[in-house]
Design goal:
This protein is an alpha+beta fold. It is built from 3 helices and 10 strands, in the order αββββββββββαα.
C-alpha cells in the first residue's frame, strides 16, 4: 500500500512539475562528461534559435591534460510534450588532449599529452525542462581529424542548466523588434505627397 501511495505521489508531482515547466530560450549550466580515459567538468550554454533548433557551446576539462571546446547545432523533437524531448546534432570541436599510440613491435601503449586537436562532434540525448531547469543526458562521440592518434572517442554526459530567458520572453522581444523595424520603415504621408509631386514635375 505504501509503495502504491509513493508511486502515485511521484506521478502527481512529476505531472505538476511538467505542467509548470517553461520551454527555454537561453539556458546556462554545468555538464559532467565521462569516457574510458578521463572525466570532465564543464560549462554548457544553449540558445534556442527557432522552434526546434538550438545551438550549444560546451567548454569542458579534466583540469589535467584534456580541455576541449565544442560548438553544436541541435534539432529537438518532443516525446511527451515540448518540455520533454530527444535531440541530435553535430558541430566542430577543438582542444588540447592526450593521445594513445600503440607500438605493435614492443606491444606497448605510448601516452602523449599536449596534443592540439580538431575534429567533429556528434550528439544525441534526452532533455527535460522543469522548474526553470533543463536536465539532459547525452552521448557525444568525437571524430578526430587532427592531433590525436585515436580516430573515435565517445563520451556520456549529464547536464543541468538554469533557464535565463524563457521561450515566451524571447518571442516577445522578437515581436517588439519586428514592430520597431516596421515602424521605422513606414514613410510619413507628407513625404509620399512630395514624391508624387516631384514625379509630375
Amino acid at each position: 500500500m505504501k509503495a502504491r501511495l509513493a508511486l502515485l505521489t511521484l506521478i502527481i508531482f512529476s505531472s505538476i512539475s511538467i505542467a509548470q515547466a517553461q520551454r527555454y530560450g537561453t539556458a546556462v549550466g554545468l555538464r559532467f562528461g565521462n569516457n574510458n580515459l578521463y572525466r570532465t567538468v564543464g560549462l554548457t550554454a544553449q540558445q534556442r534559435i527557432t522552434k526546434r533548433i538550438s545551438i550549444e557551446a560546451i567548454l569542458q576539462s579534466d583540469f589535467k591534460l584534456n580541455t576541449t571546446f565544442s560548438a553544436l547545432i541541435e534539432k529537438h523533437h518532443p516525446i511527451i510534450s515540448k518540455r520533454f524531448n530527444y535531440y541530435y546534432g553535430f558541430g566542430p570541436s577543438f582542444g588540447v588532449e592526450e593521445s594513445l599510440v600503440k607500438d605493435q613491435e614492443n606491444k606497448q601503449i605510448i601516452r602523449t599529452y599536449g596534443n592540439t586537436t580538431a575534429g567533429l562532434d556528434l550528439i544525441g540525448g534526452l532533455e527535460l525542462t522543469m522548474l526553470n531547469t533543463v536536465i539532459s543526458v547525452d552521448y557525444k562521440p568525437n571524430i578526430n581529424l587532427v592531433g590525436r592518434e585515436e580516430f573515435y572517442r565517445g563520451q556520456v554526459g549529464i547536464s543541468a542548466r538554469m533557464v535565463l530567458v524563457k521561450s515566451k520572453e524571447q518571442k516577445k522581444k522578437k515581436r517588439q523588434k519586428q514592430r520597431a523595424k516596421n515602424k521605422s520603415q513606414k514613410v510619413p504621408l507628407n513625404e509620399k505627397i512630395n514624391t508624387i509631386f516631384q514625379k509630375k514635375n
